[in-house]
Design a protein that fits this description.
transferase, two-stranded antiparallel ribbon, about 325 residues, Aminoglycoside 3'-phosphotransferase, Chain: A, domain 2, alpha+beta, Pseudomonas-type_ThrB, Aminoglycoside_PTrfase, Phosphorylase Kinase, domain 1, 6-stranded antiparallel β-sheet, amino acid kinase activity
Length: about 325
């Protein structure tokens, strides 16, 4: 009997351990364990006292060229002393591995392990450092470009809403709200002063879930899977939007931390008045984008939580609420 085709799989951690021992010259005591099965799959690799993270990209999620561009960016940041999880080459100086999974060839990269742990809610002082870390990334990526996605308003808002439409009823109040908000954002961004919006390479996923903080309160940034090109203010907007969530929309909690984060950022790189004005709007744009990603990856990731009810609760509880705080559109 032939093996039935699959759309996704979890690769065996013990067999990955043997594979990595051979490719990277790791010891026979190396252990491997899956720690996250999400958009991609991440394994913690432990060799004696040294840890690594091995990312296995989902089938056809990224091209070899897109991964090469991510690697190039990370090597630049590492060389310039920015605290990031960086790629590690194998014995033959290759950064990208190909693994023949049941669903087809999947690509993998070994990264240095970000020391420390994730902390959901941290002090103003650490938010200040987070601002400095982001600014140091932007200082090196401003006016640069990768051969990867351009995060234009069309990509963030138009393509994402089309994906959302596959799961959210066209005649629902929530879809009517999203269409109205999309029109508002597209119009507002079109009329913005683009000369005052810095362009460059963005991470687009900088928040607590992609930081590890060690005992000395030093931050290491990781997971550049969504890096691409766009307004640098998108990164600030996403971080601030997530801060509202992390602090449960309590202004007395999130506002001092936002101010500390922005002070940290501006101690390295200055923002324009137009960038600061657009931050709430750009945060909503990224909300659109990631809802689109969840819908796009329904078959091999989000089906365990995504439904029409989930989308309605997300829109009413997060997007509409965020728009209302800043009096954007008819929230």
């Amino acid at each position: 009997m032939s093996v039935f085709p699959v759309s996704s799989s979890n690769l065996s951690a013990p067999h990955l351990s043997l594979f990595l021992q051979e490719k990277y010259g790791l010891s026979m005591n190396t252990q491997c364990r899956i720690i996250k099965a999400g958009i991609n799959h991440t394994y913690r690799v432990t060799d004696q006292s040294t840890q690594y993270a091995f990312r296995v990209y989902s089938l056809n999620w990224r091209t070899i060229k897109e991964i090469e561009e991510e690697i190039s960016l990370l090597n630049l940041l590492k060389e310039e002393g920015v605290s990031v999880s960086y790629p590690i080459a194998d014995k033959d100086s290759n950064f990208i591995q190909t693994l023949n999974a049941p669903e087809g060839p999947r690509l993998g990269v070994l990264f240095s392990y970000a020391n420390g742990q994730k902390i959901h809610s941290y002090s103003k002082e650490i938010h200040f450092q987070a601002g400095q870390l982001m600014a140091n990334v932007h200082r090196l990526t401003v006016n640069k470009k990768l051969e990867r996605v351009n995060y234009s308003p069309a990509v963030l808002l138009e393509e994402s809403l089309k994906k959302l439409g596959e799961f959210l009823s066209a005649d629902s109040q929530e879809m009517a709200f999203m269409k109205s908000l999309q029109h508002y954002l597209l119009t507002s961004l079109s009329s913005a002063n683009h000369n005052d919006l810095r362009q460059g390479i963005v991470h687009l996923d900088i928040w607590f879930d992609n930081f590890n903080i060690n005992a000395e309160n030093e931050i290491t940034l990781f997971d550049f899977d969504f890096c691409g090109n766009g307004w640098l203010a998108l990164d600030l907007a996403y971080y601030i939007m997530q801060l509202h969530n992390m602090e449960r929309y309590e202004e007395k909690n999130y506002q001092p931390k936002i101010e500390s984060f922005l002070k940290g950022y501006e101690s390295i790189v200055k923002t324009s008045e137009e960038e600061r004005r657009l931050l709430p709007m750009l945060g909503l744009c990224v909300y659109f984008f990631y809802l689109g990603v969840q819908c796009q990856r329904y078959d091999n990731w989000s089906n365990s939580f995504l439904s029409e009810d989930y989308l309605k609760r997300f829109i009413n509880g997060l997007i509409k609420r965020y728009a209302g705080i800043y009096n954007l559109a008819e929230a």
